[in-house]
Write a structure and sequence with these properties.
The structure holds two protein chains of two kinds. By secondary structure, chain A is α/β, with parallel strands linked by helices. Helix content of chain A is about 35%, strand content about 15%. Chain A is built from six helices and five strands, in the order βαβαααβαβαβ. Chain A has a five-stranded parallel β-sheet, sandwiched between helices. Chain B is of the alpha+beta class. Chain B has a four-stranded mixed β-sheet, with helices on one face. Chain B is globular. The chains are: A alpha/beta, B alpha+beta. The interface between A and B is medium-sized, with 14 and 14 residues.
Chain lengths: ~160, ~80
């Protein structure tokens, strides 16, 4: 049986946005898929050596908050200084309590299992990003390279 | 008592960590050897059925006792 292929485009750079691509990529690799993840725009934040990912209820009315705050806390106040940091700290605490892997751990699992991580060169140029700040073992390429792999993938996801 | 080539305790870990731990253990095993794996993740029952089916490592046994799930997987 030919090896199945999973292609993912990761375009989000928030703490909650980091989970779907890394969970699916690491799991697919465990299921013997060949996996490639193409990181573009804000997704590039997921490739930094020092991850500093945040989550915010601002603009996200579906995000559950402690003490059912999502039901009664005025939306405007979620923009207050310190809210993002507080929500991120609380989410990280929950993640640890519930035995959910850290983003770092899932990313390591991806690299150990041979998932190819590709950084969008255009985004690197656009935001003047410094490749020294990214992890090792990644490649830099563009849209045509993505299609070279995604074109014969069995599953192709945009996240 | 039955001997297992590898035993993995994935208690307290959530998706997809039990699967990743199982895969890591199986990678270091020989065909026919058995892995005993313990989880507390409710989703792991369906996940291990799917994992073993897709990777060709037969799931020999699944049991549940007070929220703890035990799987015996043979390396295929």
């Amino acid at each position: 049986m030919a090896q199945k292929k999973l292609a993912i485009i990761a375009a989000k750079g928030t703490l909650d946005g980091a989970y779907p691509p890394f969970i699916l990529a690491s799991t697919a690799a465990a299921l013997d898929y060949e996996v490639q993840v193409f990181f573009t725009f804000y997704g590039l934040q997921l490739l930094r050596r020092e991850l500093d990912l945040k989550v915010t209820p601002l603009g996200n009315p579906a995000m559950p908050m402690p003490m059912k705050m999502d039901k009664w806390f005025p939306t405007m106040l979620t923009a207050l200084p310190g809210m993002e940091g507080m929500m991120t700290t609380m989410m990280q605490k929950k993640i640890a309590e519930k035995g959910v892997a850290s983003v770092q751990e899932l990313r390591d699992a991806c690299q150990e299992s041979g998932v190819q991580l590709i950084a969008c060169q255009m985004t690197v140029d656009l935001f003047d990003m410094n490749p020294d700040e990214f992890i090792e073992g990644i490649d830099y390429a563009g849209a045509a390279d993505f299609f070279a792999f995604a074109g014969d993938s069995d599953i192709c996801l945009y996240m | 008592m039955e001997q297992f080539a590898q035993e993995v305790d994935a208690s307290g870990l959530n998706c997809p960590l039990p699967i990743l731990r199982a895969k890591k253990a199986l990678n270091g095993m020989e065909k026919g050897q058995k892995l005993r794996l313990v989880t507390t993740d409710k989703g792991s029952v369906r996940d291990f059925e799917a994992f073993t089916k897709q990777t060709g490592n037969p799931l020999l046994e699944t049991s549940e006792e007070q929220g703890t799930y035990t799987f015996i997987i043979e390396k295929g």
